[in-house]
Amino acid sequence: MLTGGVGWIPILAAHLLTVAVTTILIVTDLDHMRIPNRILYPGGIACLVVLGLGAFAAGRRGDLVRGLLAGAIYWALFLVVWLIARGQGFGFGDVRLAALLGLFLGFHSWQVLASGLLATALLGGIPAIVLLALGKGRKTLLPYGPPLILGTWLAIAIM
Predict the structure, then answer these.
(1) Number of structural domains, the chain?
(2) What is the pLDDT of residues 99-135, one digit of tens each?
(3) Domain, as residue range, for 73
């Protein structure tokens, strides 16, 4: 039983669970300017388990391996940026969140991962440019979790 672009029903369940977890993270990041571990860790593990079960059931083990590798790459990329920026611009919760989002982006393809990164950069960069143009300065805090998550959703939706 196929469900459009995402795939088999168990894989759809993993995506819907991820949407639920990341929606909570968007609201939390907008409200408190942080990605709490008590939501990200259990939610991320649940998403990984459901995606893993779905991938095995659908015979998409190779996609799961690519997703795990993509999650590690996405996490490492954000870690490097975080280290270079010395934690300015976004927090370490965003780095941890990148692993979960990279898993789901990479599960589909390397192109979807690249699209997610581009969409995230645009969604996160445009508000920053607008604030700078309005003279708000470089010290204005913007939560980066929502652009990360929305960029992921967008890339998966248009795949």
Answers:
(1) 1
(2) 999 999 999 999 999 999 999 999 988 877 777 677 7
(3) 9-157
> Is residue 16 one of the residues assigned to a domain?
yes
Question: Is 3 within the bounds of a domain?
Answer: no
Whole-prediction pTM: 0.87
The answer to whether residue 13 is domain-embedded is: yes
* Within-domain flag for 4: no
Q: Quickly tell me which residue has 């860790």 as its tokens.
A: 41
Alpha-carbon gap, residue 85 to 156, rounded angstroms:
28
Among candidate residues 127, 129, 118, 109, the one with its CA nearest the CA of residue 154: 118
Burial 42-62 (b: 16+ CB within 10 A, else e): ebbeebbebbbebbeebebee
Tell the residue number behind the tokens 């995402």, with chain if given: 6
By C-alpha distance, which of 158, 89, 71, 152 is closest to 118? 152
Helix, strand or coil for residue 90? coil
- For the stretch 84-89, contacts whose Cβ atoms lie closer than 8 Å and that sit 24 or more positions apart, written own/partner, are 89/144
Mean pLDDT over 14-28 rounds to 96
Predicted pLDDT of residue 1: 38
